């Protein structure tokens, strides 16, 4: 969710006058927040392009709080209304799928050869869609 947010850009209104990176932003201005770029900023994230889930183990980041480094669901009053549903159902659905099937990539591509490029737009999608095939679980328990 950090590297591949569903919506790469947020539009907000400045609540007060502010100066940011040498620019004056008057109260009421429309501000475009580039979430996709923030997720790749080495000032905010160590090794930003590396997938390291352990970076969040024991961290204090909260996707629905004031931690604006990680905002895959938006923030404050305009936070995604589907956040509670996603936080409850996605782990259950993903766990169920992972435990119910063995999986293989459609063209037997090695993980290091996967194309992770994205088509940029209002929502993000992969340039080359990844297709995986579910296989029956092999019961090798004795």
TrEMBL record:
<keyword id="KW-0812">Transmembrane</keyword>
<dbReference type="GO" id="GO:0004497">
    <property type="term" value="F:monooxygenase activity"/>
</dbReference>
<keyword id="KW-0560">Oxidoreductase</keyword>
<comment type="similarity">
    <text>Belongs to the cytochrome P450 family.</text>
</comment>
<dbReference type="GO" id="GO:0016705">
    <property type="term" value="F:oxidoreductase activity, acting on paired donors, with incorporation or reduction of molecular oxygen"/>
</dbReference>
<dbReference type="InterPro" id="IPR036396">
    <property type="entry name" value="Cyt_P450_sf"/>
</dbReference>
<dbReference type="GO" id="GO:0016020">
    <property type="term" value="C:membrane"/>
</dbReference>
<keyword id="KW-0349">Heme</keyword>
<keyword id="KW-0472">Membrane</keyword>
<keyword id="KW-0408">Iron</keyword>
<dbReference type="GO" id="GO:0020037">
    <property type="term" value="F:heme binding"/>
</dbReference>
<dbReference type="InterPro" id="IPR002401">
    <property type="entry name" value="Cyt_P450_E_grp-I"/>
</dbReference>
<feature type="binding site" description="axial binding residue">
    <location>
        <position position="80"/>
    </location>
    <ligand>
        <name>heme</name>
    </ligand>
</feature>
<keyword id="KW-1133">Transmembrane helix</keyword>
<keyword id="KW-0479">Metal-binding</keyword>
<dbReference type="GO" id="GO:0005506">
    <property type="term" value="F:iron ion binding"/>
</dbReference>
<dbReference type="InterPro" id="IPR001128">
    <property type="entry name" value="Cyt_P450"/>
</dbReference>
<protein>
    <recommendedName>
        <fullName>Cytochrome P450</fullName>
    </recommendedName>
</protein>
<keyword id="KW-0503">Monooxygenase</keyword>
<dbReference type="Pfam" id="PF00067">
    <property type="entry name" value="p450"/>
</dbReference>
